[in-house]
Amino acid sequence: MISTKLQNKQIQSLIKIGKKIGVALFWVLLWAVAAWWVDSSLVLPSPLDTLKGIITLSGDFKFFVSIGVTLLRVFGGVTISVALGLVLGLIGGLNKPFYEIMNPFVSIIKSLPVVSVIILINLWIASGVVPLVVTFLICFPVTWTNVVQGVHATDDNLLQMAKVYNVSQQRIIRDIYIPAVKPYAVSALMNAIGLGWKVTVTAEVLANALPSVGMNLYYSKIYLETDLLFSWTFVIVMCSYIIEKVTLYIIERNKRKGADQCQLS
């Protein structure tokens, strides 16, 4: 019986993988047909030209240096924004005066165009640090807003019960608010990762930050190397996809560990 269930799960997982591969192949085929119809690699390179471009780029050590530096900027900006957003968002959700002080700053940052933020920051600090700072500024409001919403959405019945039994504020935060905020924090993290990539690469281009993926994109456009432009774009998409999937895997694994520990206790 157990082996039959395992076989069914394996079959279902294989079907899901097959569907994803089928969808990917459909879009690659559509891309290849469009490239064949345009018949100009300068306008629209084929998937094969893009793959050749990736192979050419990977033969140069600077390719990996550029990816590594851009990854550091993305991770640095997202990590700082999420860490500060969690702490300050929790304080803002619990303390109304602090929320009223922070809210105008967050609202202004959210309403500013990314380009304006990049240009302003580039006036004040070195170009190599601009992408990291801009990524932090753009991703911070996302985390802060989500965490504040999580605090405000906490079950009032639990808070009233804690008040009746004179539970300390420290335990209320640890055992009631933080679990309530977790789903909002996870959502903020995933949004910050996706947004962080876009903002970092854009900031690298506008701030002339070297070495970087963004500047390689820019140079490919300047020198009309459309195949390399598509290759760098594909690299960005794949890096973002892998990071997102790894993050989701870590989150799901921690959830399973927490559930197992609850069952044991």
UniProtKB/TrEMBL annotation:
Keywords in alphabetical order: Cell membrane, Membrane, Transmembrane, Transmembrane helix, Transport
SUPFAM superfamilies assigned: MetI-like
Family: Belongs to the binding-protein-dependent transport system permease family.
The protein's name in its UniProt record: ABC transporter permease subunit
Subcellular location per the Swiss-Prot or TrEMBL entry: Cell membrane
Entry annotated with the keyword Transport: yes
Matches recorded under PROSITE patterns: ABC_TM1
Spans through the membrane: 21-38, 63-91, 112-138, 229-251
PANTHER family for the chain: ABC TRANSPORTER PERMEASE PROTEIN MJ0413-RELATED, ALKANE SULFONATE ABC TRANSPORTER-RELATED, MEMBRANE SUBUNIT
Pfam family, any one: BPD_transp_1
InterPro entries membership: MetI-like, MetI-like_sf
